[in-house]
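Hi Q.,

Before the meeting this afternoon, I wanted you to have the S-adenosylmethionine prediction in hand. No need to reply - just skim if you have a minute. The sequence and ligand are here:
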Amino acid sequence: MSVKRTSKAMFDLRSQMKFHLEITDKCNAACPMCGRTQQSNRCLPDMAKVKNIDLDLETIKRNFTPELCANILEIDLCGGLGDPLAARDCFSICEYFVDHDVKLILSTNAGLRSVDWWRALGELFARNNSVVEFHIDGLADTNHLYRVNTRFAKIMANAAAYLETGSVGEWHFIPFQHNQHQITEALELSREMGFANFKVIDTIRFGKENSFNYQMPDGTLRALKPADPQFIAAQAQADDRGEVEEGSVDSNSIPRINCKSENENRPYIVATGAVSACCWVEGSEDERQMYLAAGQDHNDHNINHRLLSDILTEEPYVSMFAKAWASQSNPVCIRKCGHMRRSRRRVL
Ligand SMILES: C[S@@+](CC[C@H](N)C(=O)[O-])C[C@H]1O[C@@H](n2cnc3c(N)ncnc32)[C@H](O)[C@@H]1O
Ligand code: SF4
Ligand code: SF4
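Predicted structure with the ligand bound:
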């Protein structure tokens, strides 16, 4: 939902907000196309990016005060480098937000934690209709080819324990050539198990290539191949509830930038505590330039040292981003919120 504001600042703490929160950059899995993974080196984590760091409950409580929580519609517990379940304080952070009636949408490979933990999460999430997105890209013989180092049987047991509490779960499936024939079976299984939705993610991470080479942890060389779009479309059309959530419009013209984060009043915070405009801009040259132009030190914009409510009312969030959109000077913004080059999700 767009939020109408009179001030020009990118984020408005007095209006309804959303947040995207990466509570850790740790992960049990090693998906080859993930930013944390060295695909050519046994899918080991890229330690130039991964710091194995968490946001802790105290930091969350200090920054997400009850007053701020009262204005928050929902928080995505997702991120770019980690899995929320790997965070030490994952459960207590979820509990804190649910206690303050903030709806959570938690994205996970679901390979971590015990069934008892998952049952408790289900009971917690049932209290305010929070949602778990289970990112499962195949069945017993294929999921681990992308969700490297996870075990399908454990994921299914965890999902069943969560769903049995009546909480909302969605199955998100990235089709590749090696699992595209399993979409219908996975969809049926998701309905039997009580998932509320089954969504297919059309990945854009192949770019112009039609193959993505990687090395499994045991040294075996493999290649991911894109799914056949017509094959996927045929299955998507098989269900009349199919709908496109995010478009992917290619154009060579200069586009008008329609900032998703500003529209949704939805800042991004990573596991180091750094505040950012969104997960696309975070860590980019665009972001570096925004901070440079604003004369702000990005290290100061960290919720471990400063208050979120202060950070969001300072540059570059007051006017610098808006100026950059007007002058078309942020390539990431042009690509993501001008040309809308994003992975899209379809409900089957
Ligand atoms: C870095 S993950 C963090 C959350 C969690 N670890 C997970 O995987 O769901 C963020 C998102 O990237 C998605 N993702 C992973 N590989 C992808 C790919 N090749 N194309 C599109 N999205 C991908 C995940 O499914 C997840 O929704
Ligand atoms: S589960 Fe998520 S964070 Fe972990 S490697 Fe896969 S995409 Fe990355
Ligand atoms: S890419 Fe730029 S325009 Fe798009 S959401 Fe991020 S900051 Fe806003």
